[in-house]
Amino acid sequence: MKFNKISALILSLFLVFVACETEESIDITTPEASFTLLEPAISNINLNYNLPNNEAFTIVWNDQLDSGDSYIVELSPDALFENPTVIGSSSTDRFTMTVAEFNNTLLGAGADAFEPFTVFMRVTAGSITTNSVSFSVSSYSEAIPVITSPDNTFEIVLLETTLNDEAIAVSWEDPDFGENTTVTVNYEIQFAQAGTDFASAVSEIAEGMTYTSTHEAFNEIVLNAGLTAEEAASLDVRIKATIEMDGGNMERYSDPITITVTPFNIELAPVLYIVGAGAVDAGWDWATPVELPLQGTKYSGNINLINDAFRFFTVAEDWGSGLNYPYYEAVGYTIDSNLVNALDGDSNFQFTGTPGEYFIEIDTEAKTITLGPPVVGPNCNFDQLWLVGAGIADAGWAWDTPVALPCTGNGTYSGNVALINDAFRFFNVNGDWGTGTNYPTYEGMGYTIDSNFSNAMDGDSNFSFNGTPGTYFLTVDDINKTITLGPEQLQCEYEQLYLVGAGVVGTGWDWANPAILSCTGAGIYSGEVEFTNDAFRFFTVNGDWGTGTNYPTYENEGYIIDANFSNAMDGDSNFSFDGTPGTYTLTVDTLNLTITLD
């Protein structure tokens, strides 16, 4: 036992000395000093163009080597830094860039705007370089669109005869966007009178980075931009690029170019004049030209034609304002087969039909030139206009009792109308809601409208009567483009007379479609009636057989009755038409006591 204790003591002392020797022989080292770029807290950056001065990023490094007092920060689109870009320097252990600075740097490094772009950064101090860190960054566009064609030397005279031909083609580039960009950029092309800073620009949507326009479309744009027809003037052109974003749309504008444009006149002349040997009452001088006044979009009137040439003119006594056959052909008119190109050196119109009197109509909307039978009496586009609406005391919003406004002169409709403070509308066809014309339509056609009327602003933009309720004499003048109210004119005892009977074509002995003679003057009823050889009677109230007036009644009142009429001797002593069947202007003059046919 004693031996064992002594042995254990000796072993313990041995181990202590061995351990001490071992400790003295260990080489203890500290970590090697390093130059390290710390990993950033974020790896995806979306630059916000609305906050250009905000901090985009900050990188921090740890320099245990005391590499120097100045550090250089490099950026590269590749991890190997084959062509690094120096983006800044720092005398501290960190580096910061603003949104605007970093965005400019990225675009310079080849980034496409709004597309993710990976960049690598590192820091150098002399020959010593840190590790690199990477970011995925979305930049925004800084460059503006650039118009590449045309340039400031572009000039064009727009022509009415080449309406569908290309007038202008504009192309541009957007440098910050690659061909395969997924960003949606909405482009507009803007036009403005030169020097107005696009204050009242006319904008057109463009598809892609090109825009084309025809003579017809571009002419409308140019006139809307403020240029004057038939005058060469300067027009500014620029591109607007818009990117829609949640934080607010980003808009960029190209530098403008200035081109020279001469638009053509689209305003219709108030009168077309016809001069030429073919228009027998005119001849080739300006003493007695045939005048065709404009009613709405139509020129019309009677004309005596012989087989010779003539031409239309927009300005009296101005030979330079002539419009010949090829002109109307070029702008797309369908021309009556009795009119051809005279091929006389001036390409005038040549009448080839049967000489005589015709009604000629030039419809500028339908683009037609037609010849028809002459019109006897007042010449209007319609026999009457119809007034319907709550503002028309005798009508209301139904077709039971519409108020007729008869044609009483060339292009003029007039008559007494009872008005109250409510809305109404004009119509061209009885019973047809689709033929209505509201307040803005007349306004848009250039009509001067009586101050007692206004836009009803009722969803349909009807007329509203704002004056003192009562009966007024209403006149719609399609030639002078006026709608006027005047004092009631007690011209006739009745607003119109009605003709019913087998002798009136299209009428017969019922009330479905009576012929109407409107009051057209003091005591005068007049209108077109188509007669055939049979009997008829006059009535003062529509639908009331008891208001009829027969032949002997007029005879006994002292009327001189046209020789084409006689007593039908049919038991009711109706009128009988004995003349050549056809359309005539029938006039009943209650003051001079005459019934005449023309």
Automatic annotation (TrEMBL):
What residue stretch is flagged as signal peptide? 1-21
Answer yes or no on keyword Signal: yes
Q: Which UniProt keywords apply?
A: Signal
Highest rank taxon of the organism: Bacteria
A Pfam family hit:
SusE
Positions in coiled-coil regions: none
Q: Cross-referenced InterPro entries, in alphabetical order? A: SusE (IPR025970)
Residue ranges annotated for the SusE outer membrane protein domain, each copy included: 24-123, 141-240
What name does UniProt use for this protein?
SusE outer membrane protein
Which organism is this entry from?
Winogradskyella sediminis
